[in-house]
Specification:
The chain contains 19 helices and 15 strands. The chain is of the alpha/beta class. The chain has a 3-stranded mixed beta sheet. A 3-stranded mixed beta sheet has the order 3-4-5, covered by helices on one side. The structure holds N~2~-(3-carboxypropanoyl)-L-arginine.
Length: 448
């Protein structure tokens, strides 16, 4: 059998100019804990760019997803605020601060939630399928998908290779959070593999097991719809329920307790309701080479996993063999987690290296390395069809760093949140960005 040359490309969400801490995500412990603290959008964007640059330098395929226009004036107008743009901003900020900060959030940076992506090797029509996530559980995230859809279509443009599905209906029964609850396993990129879909609860059956305190953002019915839309064969699909108790402990997406790549699943022993059954089914469907690495509570507690974001790491196949685990700096400062990681690389599993990176600004909103990237497995031909201006290299890194330094503030606290000037600053930045990334006029303000 000839193996097709294929890659896992990571498309990171570039942090937007309005990055702030508004405590918008009930169930996400970091978001609540850091509510009201002063954010540094410039630093946040530079930290993200450094991660992209580091992986590009190591030879990984790395792409950039642009931020969205914020504050979202059209949404604020649809919620009854009128007058000039500045009047809309002032009134919303004063009379409905939570609505307003929902329309200001830079949350599209967490591109693991942008869409669910199935590689062409798995789909019935042999094309790469994208379903944009409705992110229906949180207002500030539910407004992302229309722009995300336009953006993805501008990057993965060629209909010969790419199929784009709109978001599922935005209702609680079909809550969908994208790739944060989806993992793709394979022996080699480019070959048919197994897709794991993890949901928090059933959207319809309220008597079925579900978390007691925090919301289950992904429903079983949403995952099933994506399996159908992408034309996946059930022989290559595993559908699993996340453990409701860990959702109640702050694991609001599966990627806070599990990460998979190639033939490896690195997860906590309490990740799934039927942990044993899930491991078994992936093993049967993928084949004998499957390597589950299940961390016990004795090794790392769920609390430490949530605090350090150990599992919100990127697991990357190294060209020379072995895998790299890119973890947030918080894993180094948590001694129990760091000790575990020192041990992990000696166990003889495929995970052979650990790299810690500082993503503090995003982490304070509950977004680690894995949240910041959307994985897209691409064959060589598909990669060649991707908008090349969005792929990271030295020149693009230089241009984007200068762009951030030119346009971004280094401080958004309570006082700055309601500053009407943010809108024009954001528009000026995005207008220039669409040229750097050769995206065309993807933003409504550019079309008006
Ligand atoms: O949806 N935080 C994001 C973090 C998303 C992390 N993504 C993954 N795990 N894949 C969320 O909860 C906080 C924004 C605020 O509070 O201002 C926020 O939206």
């Amino acid at each position: 059998m000839t193996t097709m040359i294929a890659y896992e490309a990571n498309f990171d969400g570039l942090v937007g100019p309005t990055h702030n801490y508004s405590g918008l995500s009930f169930g996400n412990i970091a978001s609540r804990k850091n509510q009201g603290s002063v954010a540094n959008p410039r630093l946040a964007a530079l930290q993200g760019l450094k991660k992209m640059k580091k992986l590009a330098d190591m030879g990984f395929k790395q792409g950039v997803l642009p931020p969205q226009e914020r504050p979202n004036i059209a949404e604020l107008r649809s919620l009854g605020f009128g007058g000039s743009d500045a009047e809309v901003i002032r009134a919303a900020c004063k009379h409905a601060p939570l609505l307003y900060s929902s329309m200001l959030s830079a949350s599209s940076m967490w591109s693991a939630n942008a869409a669910t992506v199935s590689p062409s090797a798995n789909t019935a029509d042999g094309k790469v399928h994208f379903t944009v996530a409705n992110l229906n559980n949180k207002l500030h995230r539910s407004i992302e998908h229309t722009q995300t859809s336009r953006t993805l279509r501008a990057i993965f443009r060629d209909e010969k290779f790419f199929v784009h599905h709109d978001a599922l209906p935005g209702c609680p029964q079909l809550g969908d959070e994208g790739a944060a609850n989806h993992t793709r396993f394979c022996q080699h990129y480019g070959e048919r593999g197994v897709e794991l879909f993890v949901y928090g609860a059933s959207g319809f059956n309220m008597a079925a097991r579900r978390p007691k305190n925090f919301p289950a953002r992904q429903t079983m019915e949403a995952s099933q719809a994506i399996i159908r839309l992408h034309g996946l064969d059930e022989k290559n699909v595993v559908l699993a329920q996340q453990n409701p108790d860990v959702i109640d402990a702050g694991v609001f997406h599966n990627d806070v307790i599990a990460v998979g790549n190639g033939n490896v699943l690195f997860c906590h022993e309490l990740a799934f309701v039927d942990q044993h059954g899930v491991m078994n089914e992936i093993g049967v469907k993928l084949g004998k080479s499957f390597v589950p690495i299940q961390v016990t509570s004795d090794e790392v507690s769920v609390e430490d996993a949530v605090e350090s974001y150990l599992f919100n790491s990127q697991l990357l196949t190294l060209a020379g063999g072995g895998m790299l685990l890119l973890v947030p700096e918080e894993c180094r400062t948590n001694t129990r987690v760091w000790n575990y990681l020192q041990k992990l690389v000696t166990l003889g599993t495929p995970i052979s290296e650990v790299l810690a990176m500082d993503l503090r600004e995003s982490m304070k909103n509950g977004g680690g390395p894995a949240c910041l990237r959307l994985r897209v497995e691409l064959t060589e031909k598909e990669l060649a069809a991707v908008n090349p201006a969005t792929l990271m290299n030295d020149a693009l890194y230089g241009r984007l760093t200068a762009w951030v330094e030119k346009h971004y503030r280094d401080r958004i606290g309570e006082v700055e949140l309601g500053d009407p000037a943010l809108l024009n600053e954001c528009r000026a930045a995005l207008d220039e960005l669409t040229k750097i990334l050769a995206l065309g006029s993807i933003y409504p303000f550019q079309r008006a």
